[in-house]
Every structure is written in structure tokens, then in C-alpha cells.
Amino acid sequence: MSRPAASSSSSRRAGTPLRRLTRELFGIVVFKLVLLMLIWWLLFAPQPKPDASPQAIARLLAPTPHPPPPEGQP
């Protein structure tokens, strides 16, 4: 009723199915996180940041000068 030595050593290397599933799921999650970070750094990070200095805000919010209306029209 004893198991052969070869099968017991191979089952120790393989681990339980729950441990294998845990490792595979953890690997998938890490892979997806790395992939999303790579996509972020390639597509979104290089975008120029808007100028948020007080001078830039004042320039954007300042009223635009309108040219005077022509004298011939009411």
C-alpha cells in the first residue's frame, strides 16, 4: 500500500492543484498590470502637460480685444 518513490517526488514538484492555480492567476494578474503600465507609459505619459502658471491662466481668461466696428455700418 506504499506509493513508489518516483510518484511521490513528482507530486511534490508539481504541488497541489490549488497552489498551481494560485501561481497561474498571480502570474496573469502581474502580466496584465505590467502590460497596462507599458501601454500607459507609451501612449499617455508623453503627452505635454498644460501650462498652469498664473500668467498662462490670466492670458487664457483675459477678454479678447475686439476690433472697432467700421464707420460706414451702424
What's the short story on this structure?
The chain is mostly helical and 74 residues long. The chain has helices at residues 5-14, 17-44, 54-61.
Question: Can you describe this structure?
Answer:
By secondary structure, the protein is an all-alpha fold. It has one domain. The longest helix is centred in the middle third of the chain and has 28 residues. The N and C termini lie far apart (111 Å).
Low-confidence stretches: none
Major sheet attributes:
none
Dominant shape: rod-shaped
Please state the structural category: mainly alpha
The succession of helices and strands, N to C, reads HHH
Q: Report the C-alpha radius of gyration, rounded.
A: 33 Å
Q: What percent of residues adopt helix (DSSP H or I)?
A: 55-70%
The total tally of domains equals: 1
Strand content: under 5%
Overall strand count: 0
Q: Please report the number of helical segments.
A: 3
Give the end-to-end Cα distance, rounded to a whole number of Å.
111 Å
Mean pLDDT: 80
What labels describe this entry?
74 residues, mainly alpha, 3 helices, 0% strand, rod-shaped
What are the SSEs and their pairings?
Layout (H helix, E strand, L loop, with lengths): L4 H10 L2 H28 L9 H8 L13
